[in-house]
From TrEMBL:
The lineage of its organism: Eukaryota, Metazoa, Chordata, Craniata, Vertebrata. InterPro entries: MFS_trans_sf (IPR036259), Oligopep_transport (IPR004768), POT_fam (IPR000109), PTR2_symporter_CS (IPR018456), SLC15A2 (IPR043381). This is Solute carrier family 15 member 2. It is found in: Apical cell membrane; Cytoplasmic vesicle, Phagosome membrane; Membrane. GO terms for cellular component: apical plasma membrane; phagocytic vesicle membrane. NCBIfam families: 2A1704. It is a multi-pass membrane protein. It comes from Onychorhynchus coronatus. The gene is Slc15a2. Interacts (via extracellular domain region) with trypsin.
Amino acid sequence: MVGDKARAEMNAFQRNESKETLFNFVSAGDDPPKGDFPLRKKSPKLCGSNYPLSIAFIVVNEFCERFSYYGMRAVLTLYFLSFFHWDENLSTAVYHAFSALCYFTPVIGAIMADSWLGKYKTIIYLSIVYVVGHLIKSVGAIPSLGNQAVHVVLSMVGLFLIALGTGGIKPCVSAFGGDQFEEEHTSERSKFFSIFYLSINAGSLISTFVTPVLRGDVKCFGEDCYALAFGVPAALMVLALVVFIAGSGLYRKTPPQGNVLLEVCKCIGFAIKNRLKNRSREIPKRDHWLDWASEKYSKQLIGEVKMVTRVLFLFIPLPMFWALFDQQGSRWTLQATKMNADFGIYVLQPDQMQFLNPLLILVFIPIFDLGLYPLIDMCKFNFTPIRKMATGMILAGLAFGLAAVIEIKINETDMPRLAPEESLIRVLNLAKNPVQVTVQDKDLFQQPVEAFQNPAEYSKLVLNGEQQSLRFTLQHQGLTLAFNYTMKEKSVYSLIVFEAEGSLSSRLITDLEAKPENGLAAVRFINGLSQDVNLTIDSRKFIAVQKNYSPSEYSLLERDIYNTGKCITETGEFPLELGLLDFGASYTIVITNISGGAVKTWKSEDIKANNVHMAWQLPQYLLISAGEVMFSITGLAFSYSQSPASMKSVLQAGWLLTVAVGNTFVLIVAEAAPMAQWAEFVLFTVLLFAVCIIFSIMGYFYISVDPEDLEEKEEKRETSSRGNMIGLVTQKTKL
């Protein structure tokens, strides 16, 4: 919600600025509108007030669109991980590539609205693109539709269209809402923007809580229902478009007036080009490099561009904050999949934790504005905007420091990382008496393994190559038996010892090498009966297990305290009690016998369950949300206060681009420099602290100005320097 919520809650600054100026990305100056546009159209009012009826359609449209966007994005990382089976780094990289694109495309939407179509048509056309993208994305999530290549292509095309749509309309909708008010109704317009951005937060809050439920708690096609999780946001976007079109006859529509952002870019480009053309020492230097644009552009525009470039220079360190902030939907969500999500009365989905951010923002805004900031003022501490932003950076860095600590604790239940020529092994004694196991030339298993003894930790086995044939000797009731097995490097094994046909036997089976993904539980069965069995788990999983201690493949199940099933044998059908299958654990369940009309089992935990509770993520969400309030809201208000009114849209474009650059940095780190997750969190923490120091130094030397005073000084400087001009050569004219 980076840009949306920041603009939403700049209450203190909004009291001093026209809302249309503040939020109008596509404003192009004070030129009067041209053409036959119903600019002065009198719109019907709401219940006799001064609020145009048309704003109701705009607010509902914005709620539905934000629900659509944030709901879809909430489940996106797990979609890549679970549906496409991409690794965490690739899933993170694509997620942030999409996020970056969503913040590059507002520039396209602004240019379309200002220079070509106007706000109304831009919103309509790009919303249609938006809807098509959602529909393609939803269809691409249907498992039965083609192979994975088809799913990937459809999803990427859908995400590109969604990015174009959501980014393109982002700068237009709020400004279009401001256009509906008559100039004398500034108070009503101010309250409209509060309601407008409340709808943004409401849509975000509800969608980030609901869509993960649609994904995880609803099953379709035998697995998580991503088609529904994407389909509902698609339906909301269709509704948003329908509602917006329904109010068409009520809107006041302004004409395209030219894009100031393009003018600024042209002015800067001309100044650089003209300076390079006039490098002779005979030509006097000018006070500022932008003064080299004076042959083509007005003094007023050049002066305003100077003011903007001062602020844009301060934006250079800002992308690092967004690099950390937007990882709530990627790395932090992936971290949540490795945690215990049982809150007693409710089991939270890992991607639901994201709803904390919009919720905390709504809580923190009044606390900071009405409590914290006044208290700091009472203490006579000059808490300047630069200091607030630096504090926000520090809080975000601390949040990632906590995330690193939690990641280290999570890793304690992971399987050990194996080096080349290493493997892991343990013994499951399913016989009736203790068994002594020895391995050729290895010093393992010093004590006898008791019957049905809960296995100890895996023992590390060092091989003499990529694989090695080893001799296992079993001593049981005075008998000694030997078996040869080939073991491969970087593999995990269980040696099953059992009695078959009156003698001792064994079997070497392969275990999981890593925890199950997404907090699922992995379970396999060993059939100790003398007949084949068919198992049904949760009415969805069907597992056939052969007799005489044959193992099944692992099956992934949702975490449940009371897992039950059925065991079908030649003699009948029997209930099967599995007990707790916990988050991230792996189990081996041995069917020992049938007694009393029920199947008797013995359960072993191969990989430990997730023992770090998801509630431990709350402090890092508290810190980064508080950091967002101090950094984002303060930053926009401060930067806008330092620029002339006609340049607000340029600064908003620059602000959105810092978000895009931050996301781009994350995808580069994820793909180019893969490392342990805790180390990556530490890296981002250190980088943000370093950037914070740089930003603080830049802010220390920054002198706040009043744009009006700076304009007057610029005019005086231009007047005094007129006499110093001599002949210059430009591209088209010789002066």
